[in-house]
Design goal:
This protein is an alpha+beta fold. Helices cover about 35% and strands about 15% of the residues.
């Protein structure tokens, strides 16, 4: 589904007239002959044996091995297909089943990413500025969060509440009491090198909504956060996560309190080793394909033209 339509004279583009007369034909992707499929199919068994030998026979977790094996069935007719028939012309097509994986299947992952971005643009985010916040945590804590879903959800609740309080306090300071904002978070589990790096990408409405006496909602944009405000928010997040881990340890749950220990030197006395927050410049949510708003390059994509990466706070 497209949001805009450009009309170009046929003579302006070579061969456009011939292309326009061609009928669209469905061609299923040739999954078995892609490079990734061939590499996984050829080396999977040897890789599983090597991992099992290196780990005293434990091997990979079952869900990881299952993701590999289901990927080898994705888009392959021998593993099942749906038969589609047109009621008008009685034409039939076979569409192979997909693995619906979330790890390394480019087809299923790309489709899910596109559908989620379209849903956010069309049905979730209002026509207001949006700012992206990214939270990373120390190494030992991110490893524990990668395996403990309850812990990762608890840390996310801390992060979200701090951000909502930041906007609420900022609105009260500007004379706007009772303002409320909203957020959407995407949990990313890997870094650029496919290493375990669980971190949060949170889109926050860059301002607050207030309710008028008649019930109508009005949006009040927020000023850009300063470095001091971001540092204060990060220090609050670190302190609250530390209390969270202490409480969970007191209830007998396995946690790593040492993961948030920090030397008392410079800014690390406040921030803590391994903690960082990235804040993207605010972009106006586009209402069409016209890419309105700074940094917006495509439908459902908010790309920042300037980042404050706080790289000095990372370990």
């Amino acid at each position: 589904m497209y949001h805009s339509l450009s009309i170009v004279p046929v003579g302006a583009v070579p061969h456009l007239g011939a292309m326009a007369l061609q009928r669209a034909v469905y061609r299923p992707r040739d999954a078995e002959h892609t490079v990734l499929h061939q590499v996984v199919a050829e080396h999977l068994e040897a890789f599983l044996r090597a991992v099992a030998e290196a780990g005293d026979g434990a091997g990979l977790p079952q869900f990881v091995e299952r993701e590999f094996r289901e990927f080898l069935t994705c888009g392959v007719f021998e593993h099942g297909a749906a038969r589609l028939r047109c009621e008008g012309c009685a034409r039939e097509h076979l569409v192979p089943f997909s693995c619906k994986g979330r790890a390394w299947c480019p087809s299923c992952g790309g489709r899910r990413m596109t559908e989620r971005a379209a849903h956010l643009v069309d049905a979730v985010l209002p026509q207001v500025p949006v700012r992206q916040w990214v939270l990373t945590v120390p190494y030992r804590l991110r490893y524990q969060m990668a395996w403990n879903h309850g812990l990762s959800r608890a840390v996310l609740r801390v992060f979200t509440r701090v951000l909502l309080n930041v906007y609420a306090r900022g609105a009260r300071a500007c004379g706007v009491p009772g303002g409320r904002t909203g957020s959407v978070t995407v949990l990313q589990r890997a870094g650029s090198g496919l290493n375990v790096n669980l971190h949060f990408h949170t889109l926050v409405l860059d301002g607050v909504f207030t309710e008028a006496p008649g019930g109508a909602l009005a949006f009040r944009p927020a000023p850009a956060p300063t470095d001091a405000e971001v540092a204060a928010a990060l220090a609050t997040i670190r302190h609250r996560v530390q209390r969270l881990l202490v409480r969970r340890a007191g209830r007998g749950r396995r946690t790593w309190k040492a993961s948030i220990s920090t030397p008392t030197c410079g800014c690390r006395q406040t921030i803590g080793r391994g903690w960082s927050v990235c804040v993207a410049t605010s972009c106006v949510r586009p209402s069409s394909w016209s890419s309105r708003g700074r940094g917006t390059t495509a439908r459902g994509s908010w790309c920042s033209s300037r980042w404050s990466s706080w790289s000095g706070w990372r370990r």
